[in-house]
Design brief:
single chain, alpha/beta, Carbamate kinase, 12 strands, 9 helices, binds Isopentenyl phosphate
Amino acid sequence: MKKLIVIKFGGSVITDKKKETPTPNMKNINSLAKQLSQVSLGNRYKFIIVHGAGSYAHPLAKKYQLSKGMSTEEQKFGFALMNRQMLELNLLIVKSLQDYNLSAVGLAPHSFVTQSEGKLKKLDHKIVKYLLKGNQIPVLYGDGVLDDKWGCSILSGDTIVSHLAKKLKAKKVIFLSDVDGIYDSDPKKNPEAKLIKEINSENLEKVLEGITSNNPHDVTGEMKGKILDIKINLQGVPVQVLSGLKMGNLDKAVVQGLGGTRLQFG
Ligand code: IP8
């Protein structure tokens, strides 16, 4: 039986997240594709890839205030723009994976996922399941989606990761970010920040106190939201957060369970 692993390519790895306009990081995208092709060689795993939005959607979501609906014509245009830009980012990633001979299939969440007041309502995981059965790699992403109460809302890639990992009984979840894992304070601001190797129910509160968000364009609350999401939605699933910028990291995380921060609740 092949082990199912859900991998999130963070928006800060695949794009330049500080830019206001869509700016891909092709070097990192290609490096991740290469690493995934290497780790796929032994044919021991099935993968679901979920990627973040970075500069392809966070600035637009903020500019048009799309996290709680779209009532004006301007907002509806912003929503359409955001959907298109995310399709473009997904295409770059899918193409890079295919260039490394991986059967990656892009799935646009805005076309089959709905939310209600910003909470996931319907995601047909069977589409993902069928692709996995055929040894294909579904590639989903954080997106602006329709919302039955607000008109539209933001579906974070992390929500997709948790939902699919739970529904499809993943053996492991890996979050690839632009830092080596989770630190006791922000490593981009504090050179003394220490990497936390393990997070569990015992040290959770202390860890949460030390984390601060440092990107004004990010509408999804970054690391804190991620940790709480993991605690609530990924009970019993081993999770690893590590840098996607270093060659070989993906292999280390998938095969040996090493590197970065490991989280497990329950
Ligand atoms: O980058 C956010 O997804 P994330 C999606 O995974 C949008 O947090 C549309 C801002």
